[in-house]
Amino acid sequence: MPLGNGDTAARIETGSQYIESLRGRNLRVFLFGERVEEPVDHPVIRPSINAVAETYDLAVREPAIATTTSPLTGKYVTRFLHVAESAEDLVAQNMMQRRLGQNTGTCFQRCVGMDAFNALYSVTYEIDEKHGSSYHERLKAFLQTMQERNYVVGGAMTDVKGDRSKAPHEQDDPDLFVHVTKKNDDGIWLKGAKAHQTGCINSHWIIAMPTMRLGPADESYAVVAAFPVDAPGITYIYGRQSCDTRAMEGGSIDIGNAQFSGQEAMVVLDDVFVPWRHVFMHGEYEFASMLVERFTCYHRRSYVCKTGVGDVLIGAAAQAAEYNGIEKASHIKDKLVQMTHLNETMYAAGIASSHQARATKSGCYLNDDMLANVCKHHVTKMPFEMGRLAQDLAGGLVSTAPSEKELTHPELGALLEKYLRGRSDVPTEARIRILRLIENMTMGRNAVGYLTESLHGAGSPQAQRIQIGRQMELGFKKGLARRLAGVEGSGRSDRD
């Protein structure tokens, strides 16, 4: 991909074309203390690339669920690069997200960019409305280019933050939040770091955004800018994941999910240049909170993706029970029902939020904020309980099974085939593979996205409680209660 804009690149259509588009970018990627020469071929990184590739292949196989028509180009476009024009568009995003979770059993890394585009579409419109700037048209032009090339665009919001008690401008080190270091007639330069960046190395472009409400003294931190992942001055430090080195051991059983995984990395920006045409906020600090709130509104209902992963976990737990010969026991059925109830509760809140969307001034649709926060708050808890139930159904072997090297050992293999068999008609290897998948999703590599990221992604549980508390409408609800109870003239006004 040519540096800067990709104007000469061919449009990407399939997963294999996407994978090839990532080659030869000369990125500064570090993993296990060493620079990775070609991330595409690294055994730890490649499964996360495969997960993104599935987003392309789904669009080819099932265009009705994964694509729509772009008002910018008049051509079909992936929903990951589409700004919602209706509540139905938002619902369709959720349905696509669940399907991809089902297909990969992990994080497919494109939701942050999708939600960033949707949030920025309305926020840039309202910045321009107040300041007479041209951010909205810049964004539309950039989005059109991304649609024409069918690129992966990642969103980067989380700063490293330093001392949490201090605002960005109060930090001892000014680089603890991404900020503008200088500017000229050509553009701006950015310095700082973004943490926990999902799929950043697997993206073609990244959009950096503020992470919190800002004040007048934080003006240099109020910046939104897009840059290609191979821009000079960027270093990527790959995050460790539980059991990640199993991908380097050979074989496929112990990995649990050998084909797909997620990706998180730190993005370090050392005076990265961004031309003005790719700058969508510059100093308008009063709009930082609006952007954060709208992004999190979109992104918290996007966590319906975890229900697709949950479908896989339910299936694995049911399969483990069947391989053990206990699938008909009432308590086994009860646990599977409980897992399903938890999974569908998360989905219900997320898709209800999309159904109740309303138009913004820009014309794009924003989902219901209360229900989005309810969805995400469920996600901070329910996958953990589903993981516990899956481990319960799997049995202790889920964490103590011998390695694949023992299973294939000329002497030990026969012993394990004999003593680790469940039902006589089910090969021991099949039983172990299902158990390793459950391990992978609840303790191993893909537990990073399914459990820990479910807890902290798009804000901590406390962040959702704060938003829910702000929108409870207690005054309205107390009025309902007083009216039905026949309470009149209490002398107290309705207060939230």
Q: Count all strands and give the number.
A: 14
> How can the largest sheet be summarized?
6 strands, mixed
**In DSSP terms, counting alpha (H) and pi (I) runs of 4 or more, how many helices?**
18
Which regions contain 5 or more consecutive residues with pLDDT less than 50?
1-8
Overview of the molecule:
The chain has 496 residues and is an alpha+beta fold. The chain folds into 2 domains: 15-291, Butyryl-CoA Dehydrogenase, subunit A, domain 2 (Beta Barrel); 300-469, Butyryl-CoA Dehydrogenase, subunit A, domain 3, CATH 1.20.140.10. It has 18 helices and 14 strands. The chain has helices at residues 15-21, 46-61, 63-66, 87-104, 111-131, 135-149, 288-301, 305-323, 330-355, 369-379, 382-394, 397-400, 404-407, 412-419, 428-442, 447-456, 461-470, 474-485, and strands at residues 29-31, 34-35, 67-69, 76-78, 153-156, 179-183, 187-198, 205-208, 223-228, 234-238, 264-275, 279-282, 358-359, 365-366. The strands form 4 sheets. The chain has a 6-stranded mixed sheet with strand order 2-1-10-11-7-6, with no helix packed on it. Strand 6 and strand 7 form a beta hairpin. Helix 8 (305-323) runs antiparallel to helix 9. It is globular and about 75 Å long. Residues 1-8 have low confidence and may be disordered.
